[in-house]
Write a structure and sequence with these properties.
By secondary structure, the chain is an alpha/beta fold. The chain is built from 11 helices and 15 strands. It has 2 domains: 156 residues, Quinone Oxidoreductase, Chain A, domain 1; 142 residues, Medium-chain alcohol dehydrogenases, catalytic domain (Quinone Oxidoreductase, Chain A, domain 1). Helices cover 29% and strands 26% of the residues. Strands 3, 4, 5, 6, 7, 14 and 15 form a 7-stranded mixed beta sheet that branches.
């Protein structure tokens, strides 16, 4: 099969190679997927660059998320069938060196979910890290119906899904953004209130919207960078769900303030979450997809041989949505 890979970490043009590799076979409990699309997320680029962690395997095929068609079943697989359209997550994670920047991937059946016929493969490849993370941030502690949720970075890959899922879950949703264009994206996702944090007072707008009560839950793209503002708008007995903290990776956390207002911190990375929670996310996302038309933001598409350019597009930092590698071209 054709694939992109790296054998040392570093800049994408320096370390990524493209060529032929052996096609994997589905082992017991696994399915093999003929990949149509691969999602490139910041974590994939971070692992390749070496900024996340040291090289874990002698050779790595990057990218965790993907979508395609099941073309081989391993022994014991009963939930999926050959020819079925699917999306998948945690491809290059949890002991698997070979991810989705390839024509094929073999992985455990429980990481693979049916993809509706009306959702494109490119859109399906955005459902892994972005959509699964947003679901776990929102619903990891139970229902949110009737609650007020604030999504920081409401036009981002995770944030845009978080706005849509929170509305579907019955919450009132506030989204923060950094530009007028991103504000329009958050409104398209059905945010009830959109605040441009560069030009507006996030705390004042949020407290007015909640009648001075504050928000019940924050889905936070930058915990360390936002903490000073975030703590001013939290309600009593609320939760901050943290999936990134690039603005300040080692923030000072005023624990006494959190204690006195019973503010809980839920920190998460998708590969470390318990399987029952991930299974619940997959099931709920399937229901959400079936319940109406959804917005899947695709920031750009590249051929498999252009995986280097796809990683550079993610690292540029101005994408709106998920960068996709088209594995079949």
């Amino acid at each position: 099969m054709k694939a992109a890979w790296y054998e040392r970490t570093g800049a994408a043009p320096d370390v990524l190679s493209f060529g032929e590799m052996p096609t994997p076979a589905a082992g017991p409990g696994e399915v093999r997927v003929r990949l149509e699309a691969s999602g490139v997320n910041p974590a994939d680029a971070g692992r390749r660059s070496g900024s996340y962690r040291a090289m874990e395997y002698p050779r790595v095929i990057p990218n965790s998320d993907g979508a395609g068609i099941v073309d081989q079943l391993g022994a014991g697989v009963t939930r999926l069938s050959v020819g079925q359209r699917v999306w998948l997550f945690n491809g290059q994670r949890n002991g698997r060196a070979f991810g989705t920047a390839a024509e094929y991937i073999a992985l455990a059946e429980h990481l693979v979910t049916p993809l509706p016929n009306d959702v494109s493969f490119a859109a399906g490849a955005t459902l892994g890290i972005p959509c699964m993370t947003s679901w776990c941030c929102l619903f990891g502690d139970g229902p949110i119906a009737g609650r007020t949720v604030l999504v920081t970075g409401g036009a981002g890959a995770v944030g845009h899904y978080a706005v849509q899922l929170a509305k579907w879950g019955g919450a009132r949703v506030i989204a923060t953004v950094s530009s007028q264009m991103k504000a329009e994206q958050a409104r398209l996702a059905s945010a009830d209130l959109v605040v441009n944090y560069r030009t507006e007072d996030v705390v004042a707008k949020t407290m007015a919207f909640t009648a001075q009560r504050g928000v019940d839950r924050v889905v936070d793209v930058d915990f360390g960078g936002n903490i000073e503002t975030t703590l001013k708008l939290m309600a009593m007995n609320s939760t901050i769900a943290v999936y990134a903290t690039n603005g300040n990776r080692n923030p000072v956390v005023p624990i006494r303030t959190l204690m006195e207002r019973c503010i809980a911190l839920r920190t998460l990375v998708l590969p470390a979450l318990p399987p029952p929670l991930l299974a619940a996310a997959q099931a709920d996302i399937s229901k959400w997809l079936a319940a109406g038309t959804r917005i899947h933001n695709i920031a750009g598409q590249f051929a498999l041989s252009e995986t280097t350019q796809a990683h550079l597009a993610v690292e540029k930092g101005d994408k709106l949505g998920t960068v996709i590698v088209d594995c079949a071209r």
